[in-house]
Write a structure and sequence with these properties.
The complex is a heterodimer of chains A (about 260) and B (about 280). Chain A has nine helices and three strands. Chain A has a three-stranded antiparallel sheet. In chain A, a hairpin with a 2-residue loop joins β2 and β3. In chain A, α2 packs antiparallel against α5 and α3 runs parallel beside α5. Chain A is globular, with a radius of gyration of 24 Å. Chain A starts with a helix and ends with a helix. In chain B, the strands form two sheets. A six-stranded mixed sheet of chain B has the order 6-7-8-3-9-10, with helices on both faces. A four-stranded antiparallel sheet of chain B has the order 2-1-4-5, covered by helices on one side. With about 280 residues, chain B is an alpha/beta fold. Helix content of chain B is about 45%, strand content about 20%. The radius of gyration of chain B is 20 Å and the shape is globular. The chains are: A mainly alpha (about 260), B alpha/beta (about 280). The interface between A and B is medium-sized, with 29 and 38 residues.
Chain lengths: ~260, ~280
């Protein structure tokens, strides 16, 4: 999470209009989710990944590692779709017959599973592009402009700020515990971890009071007002978005004709 | 001159039985630097929260420009605009990951138009010298940088009085002197009234015009910055100590029977009295 945050601030697109970046990632995301096409998903995955690696100082290796976790979830989900029970006698690619059913994979379920996994991966790559090139402060700004409810915005603002404070405190507590051999074996580690969690909770609660007092001292009235910002506009990004969307629609049509 | 901010018999009690402040009478002179000294748990923070209307006194009153504060939403808003607090831990105060958003928070809450807020933000950014890092996310700033941003966020509300809770705690020596210089500059340039809570007694003779000592919720000692810090007995009784220089003067007089000025609490005052001694000796 911290690494992603760093990439976003050092991306060569960091100063560009977040609206445009969110659209560049968001429009293909919508199309992929709407059409469920193998070609569209593959094209999106390819373009988003290339763009993310090209415009941030992330390496391909690190980028792919970023995708490993969601891919794991996706595979777990797809496997249950790919493996199905069929009535005995139905032709399958691979299967085990048990009683009067065949448990296995046929062409339809395989295609369905691959489509599903690729579509999900394409969606993840769109989100990765947005989060790797757009600092969270800018994403919050876009959501504000798009009139996302205040409650959601307030939560995002506070979580984004205090997650770092929390991580920092957790780290310091953990170091203090380790320096007194708190993690010397599994048993003590478990005990220390439990205490760490408890004391973080108490600290969070105390900090909550302080934060509220500090907000009230500056006239907090339940909202976080903000100033409008200006960003570099880049027509190339708009054109790229339109071209990509056109390409995706084209890919869908082509796929429809072939299959 | 009438004090800009004043408390009369201010008392505050937490949870019905924990007396945090008892009959506190302090008067903050406009344009001056006032120190509130006291050990941990003396009631400094409670006092500040009362001065800014976060807490409402149980007994007694807070006066702004000689007028008792009205605890209506309008009265509280006025109090909070004119009396700003910089909290001890900047992580408590900086709620936003975006530095500019954080600084703009106060003035926007006052209902100022965006153009005016933008102007104020630019002004305080220049004054506090934070321009090199305003575009960085808050969590990427150092402790000292966060402290400056916190000060900027309060200054942007154009307060008349700025209260700083332990402004030098947790800073390295360079950071301490930078912050203090900034405060002196603000006092002079903006005619700000400054209140500092601290247990760093060495600061008092150097920067503070007047000082109060709080102990267990009461004002136990007060005086001008230069006088107060030489009352060794009284300070020690209330968990404080003499400034190092004044302590040295005390020892030189008591142990070595040298005729030094025991009221010398700063380097320049000590230099003067020691020079005099040496010249007389020669």
């Amino acid at each position: 999470m911290l690494a992603i945050d760093n990439y976003a601030y050092t991306s060569s697109l960091a100063a560009k209009s977040p609206h445009q970046k969110v659209l560049f990632g968001g429009m293909p995301l919508m199309i992929c989710l709407a059409v469920n096409s193998l070609a569209a998903s593959a094209l999106t995955l390819l373009v988003m990944s290339t763009a993310a690696v090209a415009y941030t100082n992330i390496t391909w290796g690190r980028y792919l590692r970023l995708l490993v976790l969601p891919t794991g979830f996706m595979l777990a989900g797809s496997i249950t779709v790919i493996f199905q029970a069929f009535p005995a006698g139905q032709p399958v690619l691979w299967g085990i017959t048990m009683a009067d059913s065949v448990y296995g994979v046929d062409a339809g379920s395989l295609l369905y599973g691959i489509k599903l996994a690729l579509r999900a991966l394409a969606a993840v790559s769109c989100m990765c592009f947005i989060s790797l090139t757009t600092p969270l402060n800018d994403i919050i700004y876009v959501l504000r402009k798009w009139r996302v409810p205040t409650l959601v915005i307030s939560l995002m603002v506070l979580i984004y700020r205090y997650i770092f404070v929390l991580l920092d405190e957790a780290q310091r507590l953990q170091i203090a515990q380790s320096s007194r051999l708190g993690y010397i074996n599994a048993r003590t580690a478990l005990k220390s971890l439990r205490r760490l969690a408890a004391s973080l909770f108490v600290r969070t609660f105390l900090r909550c009071n302080n934060v509220y007092a500090a907000l009230a001292a500056r006239g907090y009235q339940g909202e976080f007002p903000y100033l409008a910002k200006t960003y570099e506009r880049d027509n190339k990004l708009i054109i790229a978005t339109l071209l990509l969307c056109a390409g995706l629609v084209g890919a869908v049509i082509l796929e429809g004709k072939i299959c | 001159m009438a004090p800009i901010l004043e408390t009369r018999n201010l008392s505050y009690v937490y949870n019905k039985d924990h007396v945090a402040l008892q009959d506190v009478n302090i008067a903050i002179e406009a344009g001056k630097v006032t120190a509130i000294l006291g050990g941990n748990g003396a009631g400094k923070s409670t006092l500040f929260l009362n001065l800014n209307g976060i807490l409402t006194p149980i007994r007694g009153e807070v006066l702004l420009d000689g007028q008792p504060v009205k605890y209506t939403s309008k009265g509280i808003r006025e109090l909070r605009r004119r009396v700003g607090i910089v909290f001890q831990d900047p992580n408590d105060q900086l709620f936003s990951g975006d530095v500019i958003d954080d600084i703009a928070f106060g003035p926007l809450n006052l209902g100022l138009p965006p153009a005016k807020v933008r102007e104020l933000v630019a002004e305080v950014v220049a004054q506090t010298g934070i321009a090199p890092y305003v575009n960085r996310p808050t969590h990427a700033l150092s402790f000292g940088q966060k402290k400056r941003v916190a000060i900027a966020g309060v200054l942007a509300m154009q307060p008349d009085v700025i209260i700083l809770d332990e402004p030098t705690a947790g800073l390295d020596p360079r950071g301490v002197s930078d912050i203090l210089q900034l405060l002196v500059k603000l006092q002079v340039e903006k005619a700000l009234t400054i209140v500092i809570a601290t247990h760093d007694i060495d600061l008092v003779p150097l920067y503070c015009d007047y000082a109060y000592v709080l102990d267990r919720g009461r004002v136990v000692l007060q005086g001008t910055g230069k006088d107060l810090v030489t009352q060794a007995q009284a300070l020690r009784r209330h968990a404080l100590r003499l400034p190092r220089i004044a302590h040295l003067m005390e020892i030189l007089q008591k142990e070595d029977h040298l005729n030094v000025n025991t009221k010398a609490a700063t380097i320049s005052a000590a230099r003067k009295t020691i020079r005099k001694l040496v010249i007389n000796y020669e």
